[in-house]
Amino acid sequence: MALVISHRGANRFAPENTLPAFEKSLALHVDGFENDVHLTKDGLLVVCHDETVDRTSNGTGRICDHTLAELRALDFGGWFSAEFAGTKIPTIEEFFALCDPLRVVNVEIKEAADGTTESAAAVVRIAKQMGVFHKLIISSFDMNTLQACLRADSSTRICYLYAPATSLCEEIVDDPIAVAKQYHLYAYHPMVGMVTRDYIEECHDAGIVVNPWTVNQEHAIAALKDWNSDGVITDCPDLAMQIMYGA
Ligand code: G3P
Ligand code: CA
Hints:
Blueprint: E1 3-7, H1 19-27, E2 32-39, E3 45-47, H2 68-72, H3 92-96, E4 104-109, H4 118-129, E5 136-140, H5 143-152, E6 158-162, H6 169-174, H7 176-183, E7 187-190, H8 197-205, E8 209-210, H9 218-226, E9 231-234, H10 237-245
Parallel strand pairs: 1-2, 1-9, 2-4, 4-5, 5-6, 6-7, 7-8
Antiparallel strand pairs: 2-3
The structure holds SN-glycerol-3-phosphate and calcium ion.
């Protein structure tokens, strides 16, 4: 049975990466959430996919150029529908506060514009403070960020995200086990089109977890269930719950 991990919350029911989207996921009884985090100008972590607020709010500019107070003044729901107008950008603390019923909490750390990795230690510290570290997995396309997580706490479960254009992709396709060992990976989070039954088996034989993204098609969800994928990161948590659990 693959864990159903709701990508940016239930983003087809409510604006992505907002508290209503995560609350809707909880109502669907998903196993886990996936989010994306960035550091604000004043060094706080907020939940948002893009580096800028342009697409998902009524503001403009980079998150790292705004303070939390400035970001909280923006509307992160009106772009989605009038029902969600006035929705605020969540802090990571607000996000973690919803995670009690979950089995897994996937924080994706987006690479900072200046290449610094300070958000890594902050995610680990806040997860511990809020009692969710034991269910936390941290993913990133940036290996430096993942290694910074391990420096913050060597028991952090780090997951490398990759697609064909990702820097380590060729090496992983060549020898996923060697790369995982070299970087002390807990999991791979591959783009779903790159995943095969044999790849999952090979990873499992080496003790490596596999959580593909973004798995939205019925046949792909069913195949990953059949192939014993550990999780599916999906925009369709309702469909995935039905396929996994008949819910
Ligand atoms: O975590 C998987 C997936 O979210 C990675 O891509 O762009 O949706 O963050 P993106
Ligand atoms: Ca993501």
